[in-house]
Amino acid sequence: MSSVVEITDPQFAQEVLETQETVLVYFWAAWCGPCRLVSPSIQWAAQTYSDRLKVVKLEIDPNPQAVSQCQVEGVPALRLFKNKQILSTYEGALSKQQLQEFIDSNLN
Asked: What are the pLDDT digits (tens) for 51-69?
């Protein structure tokens, strides 16, 4: 059973950019109400897609470098990476169904 890996700016390159896996990065903030609603779906995605997808979460306030690098303008935000490139982005709250569609449309 895979779980969401919490990372910080110093770990971003190793955990996201330098891996061969497809990585879903979930940007969140402690003060963000919609983030609390989305978090269970992010955990579900980590478990459901564990064979094809690595899921990491990054709190925006203490990690401005990754936030800037990924051009995150609001939270919750998702960035899907493969081979150091952003495949797809999403900003705002989304349902589990919307998350599933977002992932499925980008995983081949």
From this structure: 999 999 999 999 999 999 9
Cα torsion angle, 76, 28, 80, 69, sign: positive
So what's the pLDDT on residue 75?
Answer: 97
Domain of 27 in residue numbering reads as: 5-106
Question: What is the CATH number for 28?
Answer: 3.40.30.10
Considering the candidates 32, 38, 46, 77, report the single residue annotated as catalytic.
32
Selected catalytic residue, list 7, 35, 75, 80: 35
Positions of the chain with pLDDT under 70: 1, 108
Q: How far is CA 58 from the centre of its chain?
A: 8
For the chain, the C-alpha Rg in angstroms (whole number) is 12
For the chain, the domain total comes to 1
Kindly state the DSSP code that residue 13 receives in the 8-state scheme. I
| All residues at 6 or more sequence positions from 30 whose CB lies less than 8 Å from its CB, including other chains | 59, 61
70 has catalytic annotation: no
CA distance 75 to 28: 6
